Automatic annotation (TrEMBL):
This is Fructose-bisphosphate aldolase, class II. InterPro entries: Aldolase_TIM (IPR013785), Class_II_FBP_aldolase (IPR050246), FBA_II (IPR000771). It comes from Dendrosporobacter quercicolus. One of its GO terms (cellular component) is cytosol. It holds the Pfam family F_bP_aldolase. Its cofactor is Zn(2+). GO terms for molecular function: tagatose-bisphosphate aldolase activity; zinc ion binding.
Amino acid sequence: MLVNMRTMLVDAKQKKYGVPAANVWNEDSIQTAISTAEKYQSPLILAFYPAMVDILAVGKLAVERAGRAAVPVAVHLDHGQEFADAVKAVRAGFTSIMVDRSTCPFAQNVAEVKEIVSFAHAIDITVEAELGHVGKGAEYEQTKHEGLTDPREALRFVQETKVDCLAVAVGTSHGLYAGKPELQFERLRAIEQAVPVPLVLHGCSGTGDDNLKQAIGLGITKLNLYTDLDQAGYAALTQFLVPGKSSNMMEIESVMLSGYGEKLGHYMQLFGSVKRA
Ligand SMILES: [Zn+2]
């Protein structure tokens, strides 16, 4: 069933488990993610990155498919950086929007998030925003101590914007890490104690199972995943391809998506979202 992400994350916060937010891009990836969630009876967040996917066309498919799912599924706009992205997501029937103004100064971030919260809440859509900035893995060694979330600022941000959940910068990074991920658990603990809403972790791929589990114990409820799922798909393909043996595109695509689904299932078990549907 299609659900509001807020309800899903409040339950996760109370019971201390995490919900995977898996990036999808077409009908087959949507189908794979939902079947995996049904197999493990796990709630699921389908995340759409607007720079890579036509959120109106493919997003509508996801909303329709989520409505027929046997488990709770939220359809979410990932890193909506333009006002127009939020409008498109609403039009497609998404139940959640991320308003990413994390590179803006504090006051501008607050003002622009507030503007979207005011219309999203009127139509029961969840809003996620980011305070601090989760950067790129390729620049990790240079930037890992920059843009980290300040707990007191985080409280002010949540109070002023009325945002439903908050993405925090505590040492993770998007894409592949150049270097070893170093999570700032004390900072996360302080944010969790200060902020009443569920917390979100971006850049979970490559962060390591132990780190992610510990982050969930300290209040992370939504964990964003793409690179690891993508790499698992690619690994499944390289195992499948044998020199001299022919294949076809349909078979190749299903092999890659089986790798994606298996990795997503691994994370559902790790995050404790199994049988929470
Ligand atoms: Zn992200």
